[in-house]
Design a protein that fits this description.
The complex is a heterodimer of chains A (882) and B (107).
Chain A: H1 7-16, H2 19-39, H3 42-55, H4 66-73, H5 75-90, H6 92-120, E1 132-141, E2 144-148, H7 155-162, E3 167-174, E4 177-180, E5 186-189, E6 192-195, H8 199-202, E7 207-210, E8 221-225, H9 226-233, E9 242-247, E10 250-260, E11 273-276, H10 280-283, E12 296-301, H11 307-321, H12 324-327, E13 332-337, H13 338-344, H14 357-384, H15 390-398, H16 403-440, H17 447-450, H18 453-479, H19 483-487, H20 499-531, E14 541-545, H21 549-553, H22 555-563, E15 568-574, E16 586-590, E17 600-607, H23 611-615, E18 619-622, H24 632-635, E19 636-640, H25 641-646, E20 657-663, E21 667-678, E22 693-697, E23 706-711, H26 717-731, E24 739-741, H27 742-749, H28 751-785, H29 787-795, H30 800-834, H31 845-872, H32 875-879
Parallel strand pairs in A: 6-11, 8-10, 17-22, 19-21
Antiparallel strand pairs in A: 1-2, 1-12, 1-13, 3-6, 3-12, 4-5, 4-9, 7-10, 8-11, 9-10, 14-23, 14-24, 15-23, 16-17, 16-20, 18-21, 19-22, 20-21
Helix pairs in contact in A: 1-3, 2-3, 5-16, 6-14, 6-16, 6-28, 7-11, 14-18, 14-20, 14-28, 16-18, 20-28, 20-30, 20-31, 22-26, 28-31, 30-31
Chain B: H1 8-20, H2 26-37, H3 43-56, E1 59-66, E2 74-80, H4 82-102
Antiparallel strand pairs in B: 1-2
Helix pairs in contact in B: 1-2, 1-3, 2-3
C-alpha cells in the first residue's frame, strides 16, 4: 500500500510557493505526515497533510512575480500617477471633456447592457431551466391554422401515464373569475390559474408562508401571491383562511395553503392565484376534453439531450390517444425550451407579450455605438493633445527612458481617466436610477442587477478593456517623438494631416446621423399611429368597468343615471373597449346566403343600440340597431366593410342572412339578418389590417363588461370624473370605481413603440451630446493649432467670412461623407421596419434633410464658440512670440 | 522601539526557538509550544512568524540535516541573534520588574 502523502497538494504547494521556502515547508509537512501516520492512521495523516498545505497558502509564501514586485516596490508607478494628475490639472478643459464624454457613453452603454442582460435572464431563475420545455401545438382548427402556446387538457395525463420515467408534466390553466372574501367585496381576477400538483417541483416559486409541497394534490387548495394576500387579508396571515372563487358555474370555496412571493419581472409567467387542478372536477366538470380551451403544459425531462426522443414519443402518444375529431386538425406538438420563450416565442395565447432578439440586440448595438462615439472622442482629443506632451517625451527619452516605460506612463493616464469615468458613471447611474432610468426602461430592470457581483466584474473588466481599446492609439501617437526633433523644436513632420482624426469624426457623425434618423422615424411612426384616423372618436371617451355581477345585471339603471349628467353625450354598453386588444371573441359564423364561403370564425363585438353613436362609427349602408324593433335584439347583425368584402358583398350585404354562435354560459345560436355595414374602424392595433367583424346586440350579463361614455368636452375632466364616480358609488357602494380612458388604452397598444421611441430619443440626445463635446474639444484644439495661420491670414487681409469658411470647411466634407455612409443604411432599415405595420408613414427625403440639418447645427453649434474666438482675436497676440 | 516590537506569538516563538537550543525548526517549535503551553499553533503561521523574526533580525537560520521522515528534505534551523537574545532579556526584565511591584516577596 502506498504510504506517501497525497500527490496533488504537493503539486499545488509547489505551484504557489516561493521556491526559497519550499524545501523547509515540504520537509515540515512530511515530518508531520510521518508522525501522524505512525501515531494515528494513514487516512488521518493524509487529511492533515491536505489541511496543512492549505495553511501554508498565504501571501508571504507566494511566488513573487514581476508585477507584484513592481506594484510593491517600483517608485515609477508613483511617479506616473503624479504626472497623470498634473496633466489632468494642467488641462482641465480637455480632461473634463474627455471624462464627461466617457461618463455619458459608459452610462448609456451600461443601462442598455443591463436591459439586455435582464431580457436574457428570463426564466433562468428556475433551477434546471434548461430541462424544462413548454408544449404548444400547431393545429388547424375550423379551417384556421393556429400556432398555440397551449395544448389540450387531457394530453398531460396521457403523457404522464405513458412516459413515467425521465419526464414530468404539469399544466397551468388560466381561468379568470371573481374572487371575494366577503360577499360584497368581489374582484375580477384575470390571473387565476389551475395547476397540477407537481407544478412547484418544476417551478419552485419563492415561498413566504405555508407549504407548497403536496398542497396542490388535494382539491380546493389555493396558493396566492403576496400582493393578493395583502389585497384580501391585509397584514393578517392568510394561510388557513378561505377565499371564494366565483364564475358563471357557481361559487367555490378555496382554502389558502401558501403565500408565494410576487412573480419577478423576468419570467414569462403571469398569474396571482394557483388553485389545485383537481378542483376543476367541481369548478368545470367537463374540462377534461380535447376540444376545451387549451392549457399551458410544461415538461421537465431529466436529460435534456434526450428531448428529441421525448418529442417523438409524445407526438406518437398524442396520435394514439387523442380524440378522432381532434386529430383531424393535424395537431403537431411544439416543444419550446423555457429560456427561449421570452425572446423567441410569439404564439397564440402567450402569458404576456414577449420581446424579440432583434429588439434587444438593437438596443445593445445602440449602447455599443454610443460608447464607440465616446471612445472616438477620447482617442481624438488625446491624440490631438499629444504635441503638447512632445517636450516631456523628448526629455524623458533623452534621459534614457525606455519605450516600455513611456508606454506604461501613458497607459496609466488612460487607465486613470477611464477609471474615474467609470466610477463617476456608476455613481451617476445609481443616483439617476429611481428618478430616470427605471422609468425610461419601464421598470424592466431591477435595481438589484446593478449591485450584483456580476455588475462589479463587468465594471472591472470594462475599465481594463476600455483602457486597452482607448489607450493604445493615443499612447503610440504620443511616444513616437524623436528627442532630437523635439529639442530642435522641429515638430512639423509629426503633425499629421489629421486624416485618422477625420476618419474617426466621420464615423462619429455617421453614427449620430443614423441615430437621429432612426429617432425621427420612430417618433413620426408613433405619432402617426396615435393620430391616424381610426374610424371612431377616441377623444372624450371613457369607459366604466362593470365590476361584479350586480353591476353587470343592472347596468341599465346606471346607464340611465349617467345620462342625466349634463356633460355626458351618450352612454352605451359593450363587452370590451377598443384599445384593450382583447375581448373581440372569435365566434363561429355561417353564411347561408353565400354559395362559396364556408363557415368561418369572426371577431365579434357585443353592444347595445347606442354604441355606434357613442363612438361616431359611420354606417356605409343599412341602419343601426333600433330599440323599437323587437327582433333587433337577437336577430340583427351589423358587419364592417372588411367583412362585407370578405363575402364579396358591398351594399347588397344588407338583408342577407347570417348565423352567429355566441358562447356565454351556453352556446347561443342566432340566425339573423345583416341590417347594416359600418366603415372599417381599427378595433385592433395598426400592426394589422382591419379584420372582418360582426357587431351584435348583447344584453346578457356575461358580456356587459363596460359602459362607454362619450363626454361633450374635455374641459374640467377632473370634476366630470368625480361626478361619474358619485353616480357609480350610489349605484354600487361596495366597489371603487374603475374608469379607463379610451385614448390611454389605445396608447397602451403602442407601448412598445412609445417605449422604444422614448429610449431612442434619450440615447440619441446623449450620443449627440457626446459627439458635440468631441467637436467642441477638437475645435478648441484646432483653434490653438491654427492660431498662427489665422493670424497670418488676418494680417494679409482675410475677411471674417473667409476665415470662418476656412475653419468650417472640413466639417462639411466630413458631414457629406457621413451622409453617404449612413443614408443607405437608414433607407434599408426603415423600409424593413415599417413593413411590420399594416399602416405606416412613408419615410421620404424630407426626413433625411432634417437629419442633415440637425447634424450641421450640432457640428457648427459646438464649434461656434471657438470660431468666434478665432475671429475676434488680435493677430498680434499669436504672431508676436515668433 | 518601533520595528523591534514583539507580538505575543512572536515572543513565544522567539523564546521557544531560543529554548530549543540549536534544534529549532517548524515542527519542533509547534511540538514544543504544544508541550509547554498546551497551545495548538498553526504550522503555516509558525513559518510566517519565523521569517518575520528573521527579517527583523531577531533570528538567524541555516539549513540543517535531512531525515527520512522529511522525505530527504533539510530542516531550517533557527537560532537567536544577539539582538534577539537582547530583546528577550529586555522583555524578561520589564516583566519581572513589573511583576515585583505586585509580589515583592517573589524575588
Amino acid at each position: 500500500m502506498n504510504q506517501s502523502p497525497p500527490k496533488w497538494p504537493s503539486s499545488f504547494l509547489r505551484w504557489f510557493c516561493n521556491p526559497a521556502f519550499l524545501e523547509e515547508i515540504e520537509g515540515d509537512l512530511h515530518e508531520i505526515f510521518h508522525e501522524k501516520k505512525t501515531n494515528k492512521s494513514l487516512d488521518f495523516a493524509r487529511r492533515t497533510f491536505i489541511l496543512d498545505v492549505l495553511k501554508f497558502f498565504r501571501w508571504s509564501n507566494f511566488k513573487k512575480t514581476r508585477i507584484m514586485k513592481y506594484s510593491i516596490n517600483n517608485g515609477l508607478w508613483k511617479h506616473n500617477l503624479k504626472i497623470t494628475f498634473r496633466v489632468f490639472r494642467k488641462n482641465v478643459l480637455f480632461t473634463g471633456i474627455n471624462i464627461s464624454g466617457l461618463v455619458l457613453g459608459i452610462c448609456a452603454f451600461t443601462v442598455l447592457f443591463l436591459y439586455y442582460i435582464q431580457e436574457n435572464s428570463y426564466d433562468k431563475i428556475f433551477p434546471n431551466y434548461d430541462q424544462i420545455f413548454r408544449i404548444g401545438v400547431n393545429l388547424t382548427d375550423d379551417g384556421q391554422f393556429t400556432e398555440s402556446a397551449k395544448a389540450a387538457i387531457p394530453l398531460r395525463n396521457v403523457l404522464t401515464e405513458s412516459i413515467s420515467q425521465g419526464a414530468e408534466f404539469a399544466r397551468m390553466l388560466p381561468w379568470p373569475g371573481y374572487v371575494h372574501k366577503q360577499v360584497d367585496d368581489k374582484f375580477k381576477e384575470s390571473k387565476f390559474v389551475f395547476a397540477d400538483e407537481n407544478v412547484f417541483s418544476l417551478f419552485p416559486f419563492k415561498l413566504i408562508n405555508g407549504s407548497t409541497t403536496n398542497t396542490l394534490s388535494a382539491p380546493m387548495q389555493l396558493v396566492i401571491t403576496k400582493e393578493k394576500a395583502l389585497r384580501y387579508f391585509g397584514d393578517k396571515n392568510p394561510v388557513g383562511q378561505t377565499l371564494t372563487y366565483e364564475d358563471e358555474n357557481g361559487q367555490f370555496e378555496f382554502a389558502i395553503a401558501a403565500v408565494i412571493e410576487n412573480l419577478p419581472e423576468n419570467t414569462h409567467f403571469d398569474f396571482d392565484f394557483i388553485a389545485s387542478f383537481s378542483s376543476l372536477t367541481q369548478v368545470v366538470p367537463w374540462h377534461n376534453n380535447w376540444f376545451y380551451p387549451n392549457t399551458y403544459l410544461y415538461a421537465k425531462v431529466n436529460d435534456s439531450d434526450q428531448i428529441d426522443d421525448t418529442k417523438k414519443i409524445a407526438q406518437e402518444i398524442l396520435l394514439q390517444n387523442a380524440h378522432r375529431g381532434y386529430l383531424e386538425g393535424n395537431p403537431k406538438l411544439i416543444f419550446q425550451s423555457l429560456e427561449n420563450i421570452h425572446l423567441t416565442s410569439d404564439r397564440q395565447g402567450e402569458w404576456k407579450s414577449n420581446n424579440t432578439q432583434i429588439n434587444i440586440k438593437f438596443f445593445l448595438a445602440l449602447g455599443a455605438f454610443i460608447l464607440l462615439i465616446a471612445i472616438i472622442n477620447y482617442v481624438n482629443l488625446t491624440t490631438a493633445n499629444s504635441q503638447q506632451r512632445s517636450k516631456e517625451i523628448g526629455i524623458k527619452k533623452a534621459m534614457g527612458s525606455e519605450k516600455s516605460q513611456l508606454i506604461k506612463q501613458f497607459f496609466v493616464e488612460s487607465f486613470m481617466t477611464i477609471s474615474i469615468a467609470i466610477i463617476l458613471s456608476v455613481i451617476l447611474i445609481a443616483v439617476l436610477w429611481k428618478p430616470l432610468i427605471s422609468q425610461l426602461l419601464d421598470g424592466a430592470v431591477a435595481y438589484s442587477v446593478l449591485v450584483s457581483y456580476q455588475a462589479v466584474l463587468v465594471v472591472v473588466f470594462g475599465v481594463i478593456a476600455l483602457s486597452a481599446i482607448a489607450g493604445t492609439y493615443p499612447t503610440l501617437a504620443t511616444i513616437r517623438f524623436n528627442p532630437i526633433d523635439v529639442m530642435k523644436n522641429n515638430l512639423s513632420k509629426y503633425l499629421s494631416n489629421g486624416n485618422q482624426r477625420k476618419i474617426l469624426v466621420t464615423v462619429q457623425f455617421s453614427i449620430s446621423m443614423c441615430l437621429i434618423l432612426f429617432t425621427i422615424l420612430l417618433i413620426r411612426q408613433y405619432n402617426f399611429l396615435q393620430n391616424k384616423n381610426v374610424g371612431f372618436t377616441k377623444d372624450y371617451q371613457v369607459a366604466l368597468k362593470m365590476l361584479d355581477n350586480q353591476d353587470k345585471q343592472n347596468y341599465q339603471n346606471l346607464k340611465e343615471e349617467l345620462r342625466k349628467l349634463p356633460f355626458i353625450e351618450s352612454v352605451a354598453v359593450s363587452n370590451t373597449v377598443i384599445g384593450m386588444g382583447e375581448g373581440f371573441h372569435g365566434f363561429p359564423v355561417k353564411f347561408p346566403d353565400h354559395p362559396d364561403k364556408i363557415d368561418s370564425e369572426w371577431y365579434t363585438l357585443g353592444v347595445d343600440e347606442d354604441y355606434l353613436e357613442t363612438y361616431d362609427i359611420k354606417l356605409v349602408s343599412g341602419r343601426n340597431f333600433d330599440k323599437t324593433i323587437a327582433t333587433d335584439e337577437r336577430l340583427a347583425f351589423i358587419i364592417n366593410e372588411a367583412a362585407a368584402e370578405f363575402l364579396d358583398w358591398n351594399e347588397e350585404a344588407v338583408g342577407k342572412n347570417l348565423e352567429l354562435t355566441i358562447y356565454t354560459s351556453k352556446a347561443d345560436n342566432r340566425k339573423g339578418k345583416i341590417i347594416g355595414v359600418v366603415e372599417d374602424f381599427n378595433f385592433q392595433s395598426l400592426y394589422e389590417k382591419v379584420k372582418p367583424l360582426v357587431i351584435y346586440v348583447n344584453k346578457h350579463q356575461y358580456y356587459t363588461d363596460f359602459l362607454n361614455i362619450k363626454l361633450k368636452s374635455n374641459n374640467s375632466i377632473v370634476s366630470q370624473v368625480k361626478a361619474i364616480e358619485e353616480v357609480y358609488t350610489a349605484f354600487n357602494p361596495s366597489k371603487p370605481m374603475e374608469l379607463v380612458f379610451v385614448d390611454d388604452e389605445i396608447k397602451r397598444t403602442y407601448q412598445r413603440e412609445l417605449a422604444s421611441s422614448k429610449i431612442m430619443t434619450t440615447f440619441t440626445i446623449l450620443s449627440i451630446l457626446i459627439a458635440a463635446l468631441g467637436v467642441f474639444g477638437l475645435a478648441t484644439y484646432t483653434h490653438r493649432r491654427r492660431a498662427k495661420e489665422i493670424g497670418v491670414r488676418k494680417v494679409m487681409g482675410a475677411s471674417p467670412k473667409h476665415i470662418a469658411t476656412v475653419l468650417t470647411k472640413e466639417y462639411f466634407y466630413i458631414i457629406l461623407v457621413s451622409c453617404i455612409i449612413s443614408w443607405p443604411l437608414v433607407y434599408i432599415f426603415s423600409n424593413q421596419w415599417l413593413s411590420n405595420f399594416a399602416y405606416s408613414i412613408s419615410f421620404g427625403p424630407f426626413n433625411y434633410l432634417l437629419g442633415l440639418i440637425l447634424v450641421i447645427v450640432v457640428a457648427l453649434g459646438s464649434s461656434l464658440y471657438q470660431i468666434l474666438k478665432s475671429l475676434k482675436v488680435n493677430p498680434v497676440e499669436h504672431l508676436r512670440d515668433e | 522601539m518601533k520595528g523591534t516590537f514583539l507580538g505575543e506569538l512572536e515572543e513565544l516563538i522567539l523564546l521557544t526557538a531560543a529554548a530549543l537550543n540549536e534544534n529549532a525548526y517548524g515542527v519542533a517549535i509547534v511540538a514544543e509550544i504544544k508541550n509547554t503551553t498546551g497551545r495548538e499553533v498553526n504550522i503555516g503561521a509558525i513559518h510566517t512568524v519565523l521569517r518575520r523574526l528573521e527579517s527583523k533580525g531577531f533570528l538567524k537560520s541555516k539549513l540543517g540535516g535531512a531525515t527520512t521522515e522529511r522525505g530527504g528534505r533539510r530542516k531550517r534551523i533557527y537560532t537567536p541573534t544577539h539582538a534577539g537574545q537582547a530583546t528577550l532579556d529586555q522583555a524578561y526584565e520589564i516583566r519581572t520588574s513589573l511583576y515585583k511591584r505586585i509580589r515583592p516577596s517573589m524575588s
